[in-house]
Amino acid sequence: MTTARRAPAAAGPARARPWVSIVTAVHDVEPYLPAFMASIDAQRFDPRRIEIVAVDDGSTDRSRAILEDWAGRRAGVRVLSKPNGGQASARNLGLRHATGEWVTFTDPDDMLEPDFLAVAERFAAAQPDVELLAGKPVLLLEDVGRVSDSHPRRKQYRAGTRRVDLDREPNTFPGSATVSLYRRARIEELGLRFDERVRPNFEDGHFAVHYLLGLPAPVVALLREARYVYRKRAAGNSTLARSLGDPGRYSAVFEHGYLEVLDAARVRYGRIPPWLQQVLVYELSWYLSDDEKITTAIRIDDDLVPRFHELFRSVVRQLDPDVVGGHRVRRLKPVWIDILSHAGDTEPWHAPRAVRAKVDPEMGLQRISYRYLGRPPVEEFRAGGGRVEPAFAKHAARIYYRAAMLH
Questions:
Q1: Dist CA 5 CA 78 (whole Å)
Q2: Beta 132-141 vs 219-232: how paired, if at all?
Q3: Residue 236 pLDDT class (50, 70, 90 cuts)
Q4: CB atoms within 10 A of CB 304
Q5: Please, are residues 46 and 13 in contact by the beta-carbon 8 Å criterion?
Q6: Is 78 helix (H, G, I), strand (E, B) or coil?
């Protein structure tokens, strides 16, 4: 059952058609709603041109009551309510009720800086052919109480507010539905909705990829002055943090998310464009770094481990090693680059060169290392024109998620 409450009609002039619909999926975020609502109210933008569609997704706290109080005070706020079904289903309900020219999906524990909408509207007016606008993400470090410009994607905004062709700059994908604004008419033309099977993560990226695949060309706007404030919760209880223990992260996200967009790209282009490969390199790198942490929230059942590795290899098999090596969003460790380039190979592989990794002058030794997949290659060491035997040697497995990805 879904219920809705309309805000009272605004006094004075009739409401203009909304320029933007802010769809927000709300579930048990009572402590954060006041800051979220205040950031919308503080926008330096005609409030009559802002529509807020807040979908209460079965909250058990006072979230719905707070939203309804807001709707009673501010015109343009609509509160919908539904049983808990996840972020994607809540956003889809909100989309059905949105009427703005543009739509964005601000999370209710985050905030928009005051010029966010004004900057977006100015760019859209100046370049009406651009159909995806992306604000700049910054992080609110809740534990220290300050905003930090430390999001991994900050580098792509260094050149300022501009339009970008992802075919020319494949490392600049705006994959977050929260920081981005989409033309609602294009969403409806494509029949696009959030895939409710893609959970607990990547539903944003999946939506954004399909939107871009539906455009004549993958052209986006990067808006450096439109800052989106991500809240990094001190309690570590965000949806992203909790996702590490969700089995869907190791199965459904790959099956209905990563592999599905690869298939869709092949249908659209006959190939996998580098910008989409870079999306997946970024995504998979977090799987590797999360499992390297001494203390991790990863929870994966033993019977799911083989399936996860099969799916991981299926994605990596479709990545071009040159594209992987050209990743510029996160700093990738060399072992990650080798895994993301070769863990899906069906034939044995080894690094093209060995690396001197360490020197011990006292013992007169140097460590020479290389990585390989499959059976070990034949080794031969030469020094001073003759063959030598190593003083010590060992083969070490690179274990991720309880299985060796390389040696």
A1: 6
A2: parallel
A3: low
A4: 14
A5: no
A6: strand
